[in-house]
Amino acid sequence: MLAREILSMESLHHPHIIRLYEVLETLSKIYLVMEYANGGELFHRISQHGSFNEKAARPLFAQITAAVDHMHLHNIVHRDLKAENVFFHGPNTVKVGDFGFSTQIQDSQEPLRTFCGSPPYAAPELFRDDSYVGPMVDVWALGVLLYFMLTASMPFKATTVAGLKKQILEGEYIIPDYLSSDCHFLIVGILKQDPKIRTSLEQVKNSNWLKGQSFPEALPEVGMIPGKADCNGNGAVFSSADVYVREKLADFGITNAMLEEAERKGSRNNITGTYRIVLHRVLSESRCTETNTVESETLQFLKSKSSPKNGRSKKNKKSKTCTIL
């Protein structure tokens, strides 16, 4: 499971996906050094402050959708999308993490047979069929996540996994009247029992409810392992980002020879970890300067809710542990 998590995170380069910097191994344990999201879980934010209104939820859900789209374009299925695995990196920025159940597929229709994830977010085919199509399971989980963001409750609720399974297979849930018709239409489309007619990720992005939202693109897929430059007839060539990073690392006493040695060890090396942290910061800052900063609707919304007196707030609610079905 840990090997899959490392492999998946090594393959992804997106501003709304938690980055892996370094892998540390001891005699008894393996530690992953990852990007820090200081705002905590989306689950805890909703539990403490209540649900988001649609205006505040749209940009956050668009970021999550863009992250999942990036995974699927790289043939990676998350298989455990939920509010506990979405983290605030700032008041209006979220990132998807925890790739412990993720897997790489050959194509979008490849049948998968390992049944895993969190029961409240599980698609009906996980309970019903011998195999399932990974990307459509992720789409279903996005629908459950959207419902939770807007209502602070789950569409399918039960005290046991058996009871939850029955509710999901029956496909009966109530959409509150206060949600807009466009939002209602999107949730119903995503939570269709048959994955063949379920709303696709591309249709989610093009839905009326998300009209006008931006879907952040991937970061440049530069090499995440420091090493030798590419050579041509004119000599060695580094990317502009790599040159800048190497100059910064030189200030820390990290030489080109040390970087070339780190290439052999890959992510299991502190030089590689330092290189990735600086490179990621450079790429992120570069991206910020190339795009206009928009006013944070999410921040305004959260500021207006100074106390968890919202009727849909869930006090002292505990995070559910991810279980294998």
TrEMBL record:
A GO MF label: tau-protein kinase activity
Residue stretches making up the Protein kinase domain: 1-210
Key words of the record: ATP-binding, Nucleotide-binding
Signal peptide: none
Ranges of biased composition (kind: Basic residues): 311-325
PROSITE patterns per record: PROTEIN_KINASE_DOM, PROTEIN_KINASE_ST
InterPro entries: Kinase-like_dom_sf (IPR011009), Prot_kinase_dom (IPR000719), Ser/Thr_kinase_AS (IPR008271)
Record-level GO BP terms: intracellular signal transduction; microtubule cytoskeleton organization
GO CC term, one of those recorded: cytoplasm
Cell wall biogenesis/degradation as UniProt keyword: no
Region (Disordered) location: 304-325
Record flagged with keyword ATP-binding: yes
Protein's name in the database: Protein kinase domain-containing protein
